UniProtKB/TrEMBL annotation:
The gene is thiD. GO terms for molecular function: ATP binding; hydroxymethylpyrimidine kinase activity; phosphomethylpyrimidine kinase activity. The keyword Nuclease does not apply. This is Bifunctional hydroxymethylpyrimidine kinase/phosphomethylpyrimidine kinase. It comes from Oxynema aestuarii AP17. Gene3D superfamilies: 3.40.1190.20. NCBIfam families: HMP-P_kinase. It catalyses: 4-amino-2-methyl-5-(phosphooxymethyl)pyrimidine + ATP = 4-amino-2-methyl-5-(diphosphooxymethyl)pyrimidine + ADP; 4-amino-5-hydroxymethyl-2-methylpyrimidine + ATP = 4-amino-2-methyl-5-(phosphooxymethyl)pyrimidine + ADP + H(+). Pfam families: Phos_pyr_kin. Pathway: Cofactor biosynthesis; thiamine diphosphate biosynthesis; 4-amino-2-methyl-5-diphosphomethylpyrimidine from 5-amino-1-(5-phospho-D-ribosyl)imidazole: step 3/3. The keyword ATP-binding applies. GO terms for biological process: thiamine biosynthetic process. Keywords: ATP-binding, Kinase, Nucleotide-binding, Thiamine biosynthesis, Transferase.
């Protein structure tokens, strides 16, 4: 039998929940990795029964099962970058944070999935505190949306200046880069993100896309950042390229289901 040598390919790991409608969560992450020509590996944290209208049920995996998936990938294949998404409860957040601390992942993107863009809380209060105090400071880049940034900074966010102040405050806590996302902002700030890494403060502008099919934008953005890091990009250029990608994905939103359809992660040529 002849074996076919495979060329080296960048590898990323997503630690996230499953979304049955395929638009957010690890389904979005793995599709985004593939489009970036990055091999995707995964550790499932929870299974959501979800569609374009909302979430009807969530079942968590035991933290040991999450850690076993991470170890299975790490011990055999390895990865160049990691992202975390929906971690659901305190025990899973704590187990993932402990793994990240022990392993010293340098290219870790923490998407602190806590509150949806519509304002619905997605994880419990204990998990929020553990995420803020134990996992967030280990991430090279944190990507809170407006409501998550409010919780993490303790500041109300209404204006661009508020987004900047929140990014600076969160950085003060984590000592790492922060991207405050503006998908839930209104007016001129809609779709505008703020980056602060302790040195550079940048406003990432885009023309807001007029669509209701936005399910999965946050996951898609953080997965694209992770893929770009896995490919060797520096953090700010990884974020800028990911911002462009998510904007294109919004333009290709899928009009499926009866509610908020998913963004179109596929069909891009790089
Ligand atoms: N209508 C839009 N037009 C342009 N960019 C947008 C729009 N909506 C969201 N974005 C961008 O998508 C990315 C994800 O941001 P958002 O604030 O929506 O995150 P999220 O709340 O985690 O995701 P979701 O909205 O899927 O829950 C950001 O770069 C944001 O600026
Ligand atoms: C399993 C899972 N993970 C994350 C999100 C949030 O997704 P987004 O903020 O990208 O819409 C979601 N709806 N479901």
């Amino acid at each position: 039998m002849t074996s076919i040598a495979s060329p080296t390919i960048p590898i990323a790991l997503t630690i996230a929940g499953s979304d049955s409608c395929g638009g957010a969560g690890m389904q979005a992450d793995l599709r985004t990795f593939a489009v970036h020509r990055v091999h995707g590996t995964c550790a499932v944290t929870c299974i959501t029964a979800q569609n374009t209208l909302g979430v009807t049920r969530v079942d968590a995996l035991p933290p040991e099962a999450v850690v076993a998936q991470i170890d299975a990938v790490a011990d055999d294949i390895g990865f160049d970058a990691v992202k975390t998404g929906m971690l659901l409860d305190r025990a899973i957040v704590a187990a993932v944070a402990e793994k990240a601390r022990q392993a010293g992942w340098s290219k870790l993107v923490v998407d602190p999935v806590m509150v949806s863009r519509t304002g619905a809380q997605l994880i419990d209060d204990e998990a929020v505190a553990t995420l803020k105090n134990h996992l967030l400071p280990l991430g090279a880049i944190a990507t809170p949306n407006r409501y998550e940034a409010q919780i993490l900074s303790g500041l109300a966010i209404e204006t661009l200046d508020d987004m900047k102040a929140a990014a600076e405050k969160i950085h003060h806590h984590t000592r790492h880069a922060v991207l405050v996302k503006g998908g839930a902002m209104s007016g001129n700030c809609h779709g505008v993100d703020v980056w602060f890494d302790g040195d550079r403060l940048e406003v990432l502008q885009t023309t807001a896309v007029n669509t209701r099919h936005t399910h999965g934008t946050g996951c898609t953005l953080s997965a694209a950042i992770t893929a770009n890091l896995a490919r060797g990009n520096d953090p700010l250029s990884a974020v800028k390229a990911a911002k462009q990608y998510v904007t294109e994905a919004l333009h290709r939103g899928l009009n499926i289901g009866n509610g908020q359809g998913p963004v179109g992660q596929g069909d891009f040529r790089f």
